[in-house]
Structure prediction request, 100 residues.
Amino acid sequence: MAEGATDTVTVVHVPAAGGASFEARVPCTPGLSVLGAVHASGLAACHPEIDLARAHCGVWGKPRESDALVAPGDRVEVYRPLTADPKVSRSQRAKKKALK
Prediction:
């Protein structure tokens, strides 16, 4: 871990294929929320297509509410919207497998 990384929070976003990924470190101040970290990172300026009010976020791969507090060293992830319903996808795969 880089020097000083313990007092920061990393905000990441990976857009759909072909897009440039985003990663920024922001100072972790007391009371910093998930959404606060995302706003402080400047993600909205780099990816204006993301509706931050509706975006799903997580910390280290676990979904979190936007008002959840973050801790120094956390990795805040801004997720892409799902392109397919997971239940429907599983059902379609099961049908294909049953036909074989």
The first strand starts at residue 8 and ends at 13. The chain has a mean pLDDT of 85. The chain has three helices and five strands.
